[in-house]
Write a sequence for this structure.
């Protein structure tokens, strides 16, 4: 029964990857407020849109050191692999074998875009994190001076 449940979950995840949404020409990144379509972006089911680099930078603040290291490593390896826009050969089951760079991008997506930054558990869990960190408080107060 556990194997069947795991298979159903894998199928649901695969189906979710093939969902689509619409982004208007003037829709902006919800982090930097620049047009979303000018760079690689993520669109979440909640309709929040983030540039990939903006999302990665913000999500990094909430990840463990090991996850941050993994993201950096994946980025380097993706750059080494080059363009991965073409699909690989087909396996015995008729499934397309993803090129190495696509596999790396998929793993990176699983870490960075596992959930919406604004609507997901990450934001809920960060509610306890103070806005002003004690060692930066003096600099922040000086920046507010007129």
């Amino acid at each position: 029964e556990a194997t069947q449940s795991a298979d159903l979950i894998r199928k649901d995840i695969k189906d979710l990857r093939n969902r689509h949404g619409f982004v208007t020409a003037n829709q902006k990144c919800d982090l930097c407020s620049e047009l979303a379509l000018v760079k690689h972006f993520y669109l979440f089911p909640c309709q929040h849109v983030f540039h990939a680099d903006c999302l990665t930078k913000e999500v990094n603040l909430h990840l463990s050191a090991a996850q941050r290291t993994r993201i950096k490593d994946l980025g380097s390896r993706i750059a080494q692999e080059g363009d991965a826009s073409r699909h690989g050969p087909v396996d015995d089951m008729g499934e397309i074998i993803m090129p190495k760079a696509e596999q790396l991008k998929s793993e990176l997506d699983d870490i960075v875009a596992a959930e919406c930054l604004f609507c997901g558990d990450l934001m809920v869990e960060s509610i306890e994190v103070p806005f002003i960190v004690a060692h930066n408080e003096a600099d922040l107060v000086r920046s507010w001076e007129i």
Q: What stands out?
A: The CA atoms of residues 60 and 69 lie 10 Å apart.
